[in-house]
Amino acid sequence: MRYPTIVAVSALASIPSTFATPLHKRQINGTMAYDFDSLTPSPDIQWTPCFDQFTCTVLDVPLDYEDESVGTVGIAFVRWSTNSTSNSTQDILVNPGGPGASGVQLLIGGLSTLHQIVGTDYNIVGFDPRGVNNSGPDLSCFSGQEGTFRLYDEDFGYPTDVNDTKALMRTWKEAGAFGDWCSQVHSGENSTAKYANTVATATDMLHYTELLAKSKGENPEESQLWYYGASYGTVLGSTFAALFPNRVGRLILDGVVDVEDYYQGKWQANIPDADEAFATFFTYCFEAGNEACVFWDSSVEAIEARFHSVRDKLAEEPIMVTNPSAVQYPVIVTIETFKYVLTQVPYFPNTYYPLFGRILAELEQGNGSLLAQTAGVGLHIDECSGPNIDDIPDLEPRHFIACTDGNGRFNLSTFDSFREHVELMVDESEYLGESWAAGTSVNCRNLNIKAPESQVFTGTPSANTTSNPILLLSTKLDPVTPLRAAEKMVKQFGGSRLLVQDSVGHTTTSAASTCTWDYIRKYLKDGSLPEKGTVCEAEEIPFQTSNSVTTTSESVKILRKRHHV
């Protein structure tokens, strides 16, 4: 059974999708489109009503802006339009992270959350970056073989164990096999996979702003990008600012990745705060009391001791799950199942902490049903129904984009180098280290896809000055994009400013904060920045906020959707 590994960085995957129409339906109902495949790619922005309250377009853009003879590719955009009819109303492009996360899915499924963040005075535009979801080029290693992909997906990604040489070897070999296979599939002269990378997508965003300006009768060469990017979206946003510093209109980067580490291909600077972030589970559980936290005990230390006892017992004795209401076939939940779920818990404490407390309480009684449900083991996907908007596989684009960006700079080509890498990550984080090491840079070791020279980013994204200052956001304790990365980036872009939110979780979206939202909206309105050292409080506290404790079924559904960082 495959336990999807966390890769860095999808920040907004906890937004519940309220969108019910599956994207695989290829149709236009009257003048309303419900599928991007039914839209004809165009070199200009041509909006078509879609998905009931949005408009969509597929832009036909050059694969390589410096060599347009190699062809074009279609990039999917969806827009929610404000009521304003003013020609000066700005479009804010949004990216939820990944790499490999869908901006189309984010906007359609998470519009209300985006309205909380940026308000309703602007048009909000979600787009699928190159190789993702509805946008080309095709990065599939199993194109046209959905059943084959799902069989492979089930077998790929076993969690590794720093103390188990066989488990480490399996992970290392699996990653190598993935790279070998996909490199062969995309090795032909006509393969376009190499054009899916962050530099190319950043240039696509510039291209969009220029086409938008042209459609308004404005000078395209003076157009500027308005953008909100979370997690990996901060890599994309900072890359844009470094490449086009004079084209920055408003740039909000939330949950900042160490972009120098990212472009080196290491992914070694993400998790230094992960254990401290997760340890807040014990504190918040104790402070909430036994009615709110079912795993409550007489002290923080007692809760932590029980947690370790549950974990250690499961490592020694896996639990059978045979409850037909929980699984569709009998399964065994193991320490690997537990690690997979644990890895994701500190991302969104308000949603996941109550659920995790229930999982621990059940495991303590020898019941693994909720753990199985949460991890998705013992469940099968009805292939006949086709992929839904939340079910689009992201395994390939995630690795293709990250590995192409890394450009072979960090290649774990020997088993000993991989073992050392895992040990380093476990030293960084007891809880996330193994999963992080197995899900990131090792998957690049045999993936021989090289971007054209024009799309290779070298160095560290930075700029002495930008046409407008950049607003950076971070929580105090982020498990995968630590505050220190934001503190580093604010020094790399002259005039930028960092706003810190006093909460735990991945990006400021992990806890509601009116203070944070107010500063974002002030920045959007007139470019004003918070004072240096500004810290915003959050209104949500794990276990204690009325709207933070979702039902078990809702929490399970949300957690299962997390395949990115």
Question: How are the SSEs placed, and which strands pair?
Answer:
Layout: E1 9-10, E2 28-29, E3 32-33, E4 48-50, E5 54-62, E6 72-80, E7 91-95, E8 97-98, H1 103-118, E9 123-127, H2 146-155, H3 165-185, H4 198-215, E10 225-230, H5 232-243, E11 248-254, H6 259-263, H7 274-288, H8 300-316, E12 319-321, E13 331-333, H9 335-344, H10 349-364, H11 369-375, H12 395-406, H13 415-428, H14 433-439, E14 470-477, H15 483-489, E15 497-504, H16 514-526, E16 535-537, H17 552-560
Parallel strand pairs: 7-9, 7-10, 10-11, 11-14, 14-15, 15-16
Antiparallel strand pairs: 1-8, 2-3, 4-5, 5-6, 6-9, 12-13
Helix pairs in contact: 4-5, 7-8, 9-11, 13-14
- What is the number of strand segments? 16
From the N-terminal CA to the C-terminal CA, the straight-line distance is 21 Å
Architecture (CATH level 2) name of one domain: 3-Layer(aba) Sandwich
The percent range for helix content is 25-40%
Protein name: Peptidase S33 tripeptidyl aminopeptidase-like C-terminal domain-containing protein
Pfam families: Abhydrolase_4 (PF08386)
Family: Belongs to the peptidase S33 family.
InterPro entries: AB_hydrolase_fold, Pept_S33_TAP-like_C, Serine_prot/Carboxylest_S33
